[in-house]
Amino acid sequence: MNGQPIITLIILWSLYFVLHSSLASLRTKEYVARHWPSLMPGYRLFFNAVATLFVLPPLYVMFRYPGETLWIWEGVWSYVANGIALLAVAGFLWSLRYYDSGEFSGLSQLRGNTRTVEDQESFHLSPLHRFVRHPWYALGLVIIWTRDMNQAFLVTAVMLSGYFILGLRLEEKKLLRYHGEIYRRYREKVPALLPLPWRYLTRTEAEELVSTKL
Questions:
Q1: CB–CB of 179/145 below 8 Å?
Q2: How many whole angstroms separate alpha carbon 164 and alpha carbon 135?
């Protein structure tokens, strides 16, 4: 694989991350709400559509120009890697039941003609949230780094990992704004991505935190 596809891939992912972060930022949402409030009910749907559409170019380059193979999980390690990845996918699918699909997709905001900037979903904790604050990011990293690796996928894996960490920080700012002191308490107890045996919430502690009224 020559350098041109790699450079193109880096540029496409960088542009995607900038676009994704810009549209997800509170500043952008507040600007739209202030100048075009009638557009806010459809903002989440628009965001999801743009995020889906503009992720296709870097994915195309990644699969069209994979480059040299760097490593392949073989023998027993292939079973281990694929087993871990399947568990991560299963964890992701299982966790969906604890999210408001209408809120996440944007359909609830459209139907309810919601024009506020803040998410409408109240503070809640799924079972996975008792161990890490951002389980989807954590599961995504597991899936990415248990795959066979070629040059293009390695570039993608490194850039996605960096963006997950950056996106985590940006998302935390929003969560602190939405939930305030409750989220601060939660953040003190639970790590962001890497589960730690000494930092987690029991089921009772999670229920007590969610029911806290400040």
A1: no
A2: 11
User: For the segment 70-119, what is each residue's pLDDT rounded down to a tens digit?
Assistant: 999 999 999 999 999 999 999 999 998 888 777 777 788 888 777 777 66
Here the tokens at position 43 are: 């903002």
Percent helix, strand, coil in the chain (nearest 5)?
Answer: 70, 5, 25
In whole angstroms, what is the distance from residue 205 CA to residue 89 CA?
27
CB-based burial, 14-28: b 16+ in 10 Å, e otherwise: eebbeebeebeeeee
Closest CA to 62 of 12, 96, 127: 12
**DSSP code per residue over 118-165:** S--SPP---GGGGT-S-HHHHHHHHHHHTS-EEHHHHHHHHHHHHHHH
Handedness of CA 49, 54, 58, 64 (dihedral sign): positive
Cα-based angle 151, 168, 85 (whole degrees, multiple of 5): 50
Bridge-partner residues for 71, per DSSP?
Answer: 149
- Buried residues in 65-94 as b, exposed as e (16+ CB within 10 A): bebeeeeebeeeeeeebeeebeebeebbee
